[in-house]
């Protein structure tokens, strides 16, 4: 179990046998089921709430409204602007208004339906541009601009010989983790509550819950339950506070588990956006300037919008040398569903725009699109548009070279009887046997930050314990870090195993009995929590070596290998278990990466980010332009991961991340009409199936970042950034159509 | 109402079942078999795939009452408590498991496929598993797992 090996997941056996306990599998004797009363209007004033009918329903034990929130009825990751239960206004369709707990989930649902809320329905603002109008209703006390980011870099009056402009639109994507929002709250005699929950960040949930419940943090204890995927959807509170309020009031355990439809209103989504770009270049294709206006719809509450718009702005130009940039990023409040974190976090939206612009520029210059990108490729030591000098490997040109050199898949299926329909647009609907199908190839590259930014304190805590069990050395690793599926639990064991030379490593369940790990987001956990496990393991190792030297008068240069203390030449000094005896060696360490700084409010200049990661994609598509159907034939990708701690897991991240990018490009969109979600189910919100996702050809580079543990770079998000833009480019190449919005719809290909 | 059926070889009975309860709810909340997963409860994602009288079904689309007198095998019943079925082993080895929420359904659906087709082609694998959504893996390692299992069974 060493760093660099494709070690199997320790939770794999339980998961394949159906015995891994997810948050929706929890249960307790005499538990009640919670249900949420939700707003049927995107914008309304609450005039009155009548709980009497709901309270009188069979099996009902508790009904709660905003009056019953025992602490502060506001929460939020960046801005405390969202009520736990709406009190004066509802600002989006599906906002939580009241809660019910009953013996059976169906009783709870029926009681929730019986609860009467008298609304004064207001006209919703459902467009971000409309929210910015001077006469628009103010949805929050400070107005409708959640954050505005200005980047002013280089010569603001720069002019260029070649200018291309474009306007792009990105639909609202859902993270759609398969595990629903769910958990079990257990009240204790002393007025405290124990919450078993699937979350991306235990400690920030705890902090928010303590404030909402009006309890000191030590009276709100959280234990991680199994997480059925996250992708950003579990950064904000969903049912956490609701279940705790119900349990504390009922004096009984309360389970809540959302249906898929409720899940669509129970978590934030990827920001939809409109982006206006102008690129100026010289006649050799070198960029002179980029101007952009990026408008994201943040929906009804802030969530992590302020950080998303910062990313969208910082990475707006792509990984290119841009001497002058004028970027205005705005995220606005509307009455649409709240938007926040999703894999890629702001870099996904802008990548569609900057890559389409690069292709436009290449066409204008009659230049190969890969060649144009190479000519402008960012390199180590270059200044970003935020003024930060980028250090470490910046393999933009290498990644492009790699994908361009990969062999292309065989051309489309031949006509005739032996056609594999599943490989053609339309699939087994049998819409074509290859006639009318056009092939296209497209390229895209993107980048984003790893870890928190703009001075937000980034650290993780690890406790590592070495002792003897059954005559053998054992290591226990304890952190609060969320294993969301990415394989962090494996990585932690690999790191401790590598640093301590011990074969038996157990990663304990995450909970709040150990310090914060920060969130499983921003592709940061292998770096930050991995760094904490490494640091704590090193501290334990130093004590073991000191102990060996003191007790055995052993020479210097000792290390631990395969459960033994050995000399520098590998000669056995003492078995670790013998040396330890009954001794327990435990060390807790925090790991802090280098500091970041807030963007300047007027110029957007700062060393705002800690690490940068890059990925490139090439997409091959077949389009049936007569019917507006398309099939992604292949994705090819190259990514620098610094060091692959677990190569198999890295491949899984790249394949899975590419699939989510594909989803946004060709099918995934939350469809809104007047603020109401029209497709809140897996029947109507389309996710890529095994028939939609093509094989992925990949080149994983390990270039080693001198600043990070083992030289690693965050892996999870980059594949989600460039796969979709490459598909859009391939569709443009196949059809000659502009394709300025995603997901691409049939009528974008035909009308 | 009362529901009596055979689940993973054992006679099971639940009393006081509400008529609207799905087989999935009965398996999970009444029999404590949480291996079949509740991801969409609409028959779209395949996470709750089980065998009903030997036929692959989504347990969320079967009413609890319809299971009365019938035989059900869930993911927990594919193997005894001690070991892993070759399909399960292949999923772990191939890296086909990330969050794992789709995994029980995929394991059951793969089991069904390999019972019908011993050495499926890639097209057959894709067709057979098209009703099982995985949000984490992008499916490549799932195809690897099916091939690995097919080579061993």
Secondary-structure blueprint:
The complex is a heterodimer of chains A (751) and B (153).
Chain A: H1 12-16, E1 32-38, E2 44-50, H2 52-55, E3 60-64, E4 89-90, E5 96-102, H3 105-114, E6 116-121, H4 128-132, E7 145-153, E8 162-170, E9 182-187, E10 193-197, H5 202-213, E11 220-224, H6 240-250, E12 254-257, H7 260-266, E13 273-281, E14 287-299, H8 305-314, E15 324-333, H9 347-365, H10 369-375, H11 396-405, E16 437-450, E17 460-469, E18 472-478, H12 488-500, E19 505-507, H13 525-552, E20 559-561, E21 564-566, E22 572-575, H14 576-580, E23 585-591, E24 611-624, E25 629-640, H15 647-666, E26 672-673, E27 676-677, E28 696-701, H16 718-735, E29 741-742, H17 746-750
Parallel strand pairs in A: 1-12, 8-29, 10-11, 14-15, 18-19, 25-28
Antiparallel strand pairs in A: 1-5, 2-4, 2-6, 3-5, 7-15, 8-13, 9-10, 9-12, 13-14, 16-24, 17-18, 17-23, 20-21, 21-22, 24-25, 26-27
Helix pairs in contact in A: 5-6, 8-9, 9-16, 10-11, 12-13, 15-16
Chain B: E1 3-7, E2 10-14, H1 23-30, E3 49-52, E4 55-58, E5 71-73, H2 86-94, H3 103-116, H4 122-128, H5 140-152
Parallel strand pairs in B: 1-5
Antiparallel strand pairs in B: 1-2, 3-4, 3-5
Helix pairs in contact in B: 2-5
Task: Explain this structure.
The complex is a heterodimer of chains A (751) and B (153). By secondary structure, chain A is of the alpha+beta class. Chain A folds into three domains: 13-123 and 180-227 and 234-266, Aldehyde oxidase/xanthine dehydrogenase, a/b hammerhead (Aldehyde Oxidoreductase, domain 3, Alpha-Beta Complex), CATH 3.90.1170.50; 273-453 and 598-750, Aldehyde Oxidoreductase, domain 4, CATH 3.30.365; 459-591, Aldehyde oxidase/xanthine dehydrogenase, molybdopterin binding domain (Aldehyde Oxidoreductase, domain 4, 2-Layer Sandwich), CATH 3.30.365. Helices cover 25% and strands 26% of the residues of chain A. Chain A has a seven-stranded mixed β-sheet with strand order 3-5-1-12-9-10-11, with helices on both faces. The N and C termini of chain A lie far apart (56 Å). The relative contact order of chain A is 0.13. Chain B is an alpha+beta fold and 153 residues long. Chain B folds into two domains: 3-77, Beta-grasp domain (Ubiquitin-like (UB roll), Roll), CATH 3.10.20.30; 86-152, Orthogonal Bundle (DNA polymerase, domain 1), CATH 1.10.150.120. A five-stranded mixed β-sheet of chain B has the order 2-1-5-3-4, with helices on both faces. In chain B, a hairpin with a 2-residue loop joins strand 1 (3-7) and strand 2. Chain B is globular. The model of chain B has no long low-confidence stretch (mean pLDDT 97). The chains are: A alpha+beta (751), B alpha+beta (153).
């Amino acid at each position: 179990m060493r760093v660099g090996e494709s070690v199997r997941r320790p939770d794999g056996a339980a998961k394949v046998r159906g015995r891994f306990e997810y948050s929706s599998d929890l249960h307790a004797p005499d538990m009640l089921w919670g249900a949420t009363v939700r707003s049927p209007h995107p914008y309304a004033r609450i005039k009155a709430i009548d709980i009497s009918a709901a309270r009188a329903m069979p099996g009902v034990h508790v009904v709660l409204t905003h009056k019953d929130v025992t602490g502060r009825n506001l929460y939020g990751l960046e801005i405390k602007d969202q009520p736990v239960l709406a009190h004066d206004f509802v600002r989006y369709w599906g906002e939580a208004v009241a809660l019910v707990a009953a013996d059976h989930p169906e009783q709870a649902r029926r009681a929730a339906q019986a609860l009467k809320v008298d609304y004064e329905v207001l006209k919703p603002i459902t467009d971000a541009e409309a929210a910015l109008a001077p006469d628009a209703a103010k949805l929050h006390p400070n107005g409708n601009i959640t954050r505005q980011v200005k980047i002013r870099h280089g010569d603001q009056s720069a002019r260029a010989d070649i200018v291309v402009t474009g306007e792009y639109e990105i639909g609202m994507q859902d993270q759609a983790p398969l595990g629903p929002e769910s958990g079990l709250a257990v009240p204790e005699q002393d007025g405290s509550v124990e919450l078993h929950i699937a979350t991306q960040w235990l400690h920030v949930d705890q902090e928010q819950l303590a404030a909402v419940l009006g309890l000191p943090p030590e009276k709100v204890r959280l234990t991680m339950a199994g997480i059925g995927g996250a992708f950003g959807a579990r950064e904000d509170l969903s049912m956490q506070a609701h279940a705790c309020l119900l349990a504390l009031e009922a004096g009984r355990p309360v389970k809540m588990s959302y249906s898929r439809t409720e899940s669509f209103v129970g978590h934030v989504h990827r920001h939809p956006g409109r982006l206006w770009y102008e690129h100026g270049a010289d006649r050799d294709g070198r960029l002179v300037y980029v101007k952009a206006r990026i408008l994201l719809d943040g929906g009804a509450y802030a969530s992590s919008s302020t950080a998303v718009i910062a990313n969208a702005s910082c990475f707006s130009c792509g990984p290119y040398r841009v001497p002058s940039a004028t970027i205005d990023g705005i995220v606005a409040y509307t009455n649409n569903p709240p938007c926040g974190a999703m894999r890629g976090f702001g870099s996904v939206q802008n990548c569609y725009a900057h890559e389409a612009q690069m292709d436009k520029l290449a066409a204008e210059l009659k230049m190969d699109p890969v060649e144009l990108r190479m000519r402008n490729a960012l390199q180590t030591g270059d200044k970003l548009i935020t003024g930060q000098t980028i250090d470490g490997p910046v393999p933009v040109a290498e990644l492009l070279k790699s994908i361009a050199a990969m062999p292309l898949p065989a051309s489309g299926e031949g006509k005739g009887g032996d056609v594999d329909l599943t490989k053609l647009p339309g699939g087994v609907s049998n819409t074509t046997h290859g006639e009318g199908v056009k092939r296209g190839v497209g390229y895209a590259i993107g980048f984003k930050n790893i870890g928190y930014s703009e001075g937000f304190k980034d650290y993780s805590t690890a406790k590592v314990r070495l002792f003897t069990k059954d005559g053998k050395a054992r290591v226990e690793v304890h952190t609060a870090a969320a294993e969301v599926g990415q394989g962090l639990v494996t990585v932690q064991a690999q790191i401790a195993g590598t640093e301590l030379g011990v074969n038996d490593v157990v990663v304990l369940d995450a909970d709040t009995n150990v310090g914060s790990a920060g969130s499983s987001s921003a592709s940061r956990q292998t770096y930050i929590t991995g760094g904490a496990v490494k640091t704590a393991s090193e501290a334990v190792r130093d004590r073991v070596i000191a102990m060996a030297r003191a007790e055995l008068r052993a020479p210097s240069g000792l290390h631990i290998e395969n459960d033994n203390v050995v000399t520098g030449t590998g000669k056995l000094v003492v078995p670790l278990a013998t040396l330890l005896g009954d001794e327990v060696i435990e060390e807790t360490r925090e790991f802090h990466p280098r500091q970041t700084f807030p963007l300047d409010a007027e110029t957007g200049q700062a060393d705002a980010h800690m690490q940068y990661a890059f990925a490139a994609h090439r997409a091959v598509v077949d389009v049936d332009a007569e019917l507006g159907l398309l099939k992604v034939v292949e994705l090819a990708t190259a990514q620098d991961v610094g060091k692959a701690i677990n190569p198999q897991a890295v491949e899984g991240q790249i394949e899975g991340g590419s699939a989510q990018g594909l989803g946004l490009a060709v099918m995934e969109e939350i469809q809104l009409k007047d603020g109401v979600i029209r497709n809140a189910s897996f029947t109507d919100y389309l996710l890529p199936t095994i028939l939609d996702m093509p094989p992925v050809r990949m080149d994983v580079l390990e270039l080693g970042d001198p600043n990070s543990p083992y030289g690693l770079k965050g892996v999870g998000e980059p594949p989600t950034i460039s796969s979709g833009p490459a598909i859009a480019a391939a569709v443009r190449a196949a059809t000659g159509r502009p394709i300025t919005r995603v997901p691409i719809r049939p009528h974008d290909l035909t009308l | 109402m009362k529901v009596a059926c055979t689940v993973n070889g054992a006679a099971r009975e639940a009393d006081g079942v509400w008529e609207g309860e799905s087989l999935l709810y009965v398996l999970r909340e009444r029999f404590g078999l949480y291996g079949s997963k509740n991801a969409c409860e609409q028959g779209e994602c395949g996470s709750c795939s089980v065998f009903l009288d030997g036929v692959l079904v989504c347990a969320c689309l079967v009413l609890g009452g319809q299971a009365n007198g019938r035989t059900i095998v869930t993911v927990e019943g594919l193997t005894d408590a001690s070991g892993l079925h070759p399909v399960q082993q292949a999923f772990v080895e191939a890296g086909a498991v990330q969050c794992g929420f789709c995994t029980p359904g995929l394991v059951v659906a793969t089991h069904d496929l390999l019972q019908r087709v011993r050495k499926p082609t890639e097209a057959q694998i894709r067709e057979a598993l098209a009703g099982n959504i995985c949000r984490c893996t992008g499916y490549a390692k799932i195809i690897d797992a099916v091939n690995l299992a097919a080579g061993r069974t």
